[in-house]
Amino acid sequence: MASSIGNEKPKVKDSIQPETFEKSIDNSTYYYQKFCSYLLDRRQYLGRFTRRNDGVILRLENIVFDKEELYFVIQIRNNSTLDYDLNFLNLSIETRQKGKKKSLQRLYQEPIFKHHLPSKIAVNETVRFIYVMPKFSLSNDRRVILELNEKAGERNIELKISHKYINNPN
Question: Distance between CA 2 and CA 10 in Å, rounded?
Fold first, then answer.
């Protein structure tokens, strides 16, 4: 022992680090759930963002900016005589060019978190849920498209949201 230089101990910190990382993920999920519940209770409205198709009403109630995320508060009401089976609700950014040579390009945005997203909306039922998206802003030649798609049906709805509302959320 006398001939050894210094004393080396194995590093223990590396084995602890992944656990703390998992906890931070749980914390953000927990935060999203808490903040989403708060937003659903608040009932604040942006403006007249409503689209209808055969008794199904898609409505964007609010866009809220918090920390590094945008929260889209969405309401779907089913006034039709059939249940609405939700296939998907996509949020994409559409680039639109004005002029003779128009071209449209849609870039799908993956939500970080979905709060209370239903798979079926019964007759005369209203559901409210939230999509949490990473923060983004849009130039004035782009807009956001909320695309509601029915499983094995044709009651599909598209809601176009101007860049003004994305860049100036509540």
Answer: 20
